[in-house]
Amino acid sequence: MHGPRPTISSLHGMVAAAHPLAAQAGARVLANGGNAFDAAGATAAALNVVEPFMSSLAGMGSATMWVAAEKRVRVLDFVPDVPESFPLERFSQRSDLERGALAVAPPGNLAGWCELNRAYGKASLDQIFAPAIALAEDGFPVAEFGVTEFNEQEPLLRERPELYEHWAKNYLRDSSEPFELGHILRQPELAGTLREIAAKGPDHLYRGALGETVTAHLKALGGTLTMADLARVAPRWREPLAVSYRGRLVHVPPPPCEGFQFLLTLRILEGFDLAGLERNGAEHLDIVYRAIRLAAGLRIAHNNPNPEALTELLCDASVGKLRARLRDSRPIEAPTEQWMAEAAAGEDPAHTTSFSIADREGNLICVTQSIGSPFGSAVVVPGTGLCLNNFLYWADVQPSSPNRSQPGSALPMCMSPSLSTRDGKPVLALGTPGSYGIMQTQAQALVQHLDFGLPLQEAIEAPRARLWDGTAIEVEDRIAPETIAQLRQLGHDIKPFDVGWTMRVGGMQAVAVDPATGRLTGAADPRRDGYVATP
Description:
alpha+beta, Glutamine Phosphoribosylpyrophosphate, subunit 1, domain 1, 2 domains, 36% helix, globular, Ntn_hydrolases_N, transferase activity, transferase, zymogen, GGT_lsub
């Protein structure tokens, strides 16, 4: 799974996804006459089958895309608001919402996939869901990353018997043995659910019988999500937020999406000649890490800013002050996750996926979507094959926090699907999973690609780091030990992961476009089961 991948190019379409079977599902739709927006739904639905620990139609996400017919960048936000039924007064810390029925937020993914198809697609829902239905019904051999995830999560979920029974029945069937490479996973109930949605449309979940089944099961487990919460789900088309970096315009979704941290990092780095430094040397990494930490601190301090406040954060004067702060020798200590009274580092349970797709018509899209933690809330709805999200774990419930979430309010989400243009033409779709690390690792990869000139696949393979609250950093141990020692002297509490490649720094997928020739180049992250497929 780990190690360099070949460069894959095509003139007819490209899908870079977190699993080879999902990439093939998207490529199949492209080959049968669908476009990138249809292929996005096919890829996403297939991911629901082949990486259920990260993906579900009951998750949420967002997409940034180039619409060739309109010659513009658009954003589709399918992160629903905090439900009106959310009992905020019951909670005081994030850990209260890590698992179980109360952690479940309204599902946005299905609505997002269907809206992409409605607005710009060419295929029917039957055609889009057909590959996923076949994978769920026939079964598929589990790949390396899936084996790891199932075997890591099974003993943890066994400690929650009220959740484990239905989870085990859905995924383990009659087997109590650990997963091994090639284990055949069949999900006939999920196949049936996808088939019903293909026939009845998304309202089968949001206003129909499937929604009634979901909310009834949650209620039986003590949850509060209602059919009214489901009926309020509506994807939103938004204007993208963009900044210039090395001659490109990099676009991401606007707030309440938290991707503006990524753009603020790029704005800070634009003031430094990184290309003149030793790649992966202490000076290069120190500048990038300090810029990331400054941007993260401001994202937390100004969470979900209004347009005027966001303009002020990204303006030359404000960015100039940040560059000056970066240039001084004082260590930078700041939070990277949510607001907190005291800094702390720790395991981030986020499980997200990102994929990028291009078609022969010139459309280009990057989608980042998630179920939250591994297997989300771990609530599997009997008879449906659906594993529900735990996105209310990303709501801020701390009573003293200035960013405390409220029922019915926007849910700020740490996703950053990006679309870059040059001279008014699309050139790169790039995204990654990783919770609050998403905005960190995308900046690191883009620096490798644009500042140091690495080909896209090599830029994704380059060693990355995950910054935590305070001054803590974990870095892949392919960074030289002497460089790590120098970074400690510069004020970073840095330590290497005990492996050279780790999913803790994301699982990036990207597609680049050469406007002159039309050549599409895909890149997939070897830290997970990422692969590239062409029609």
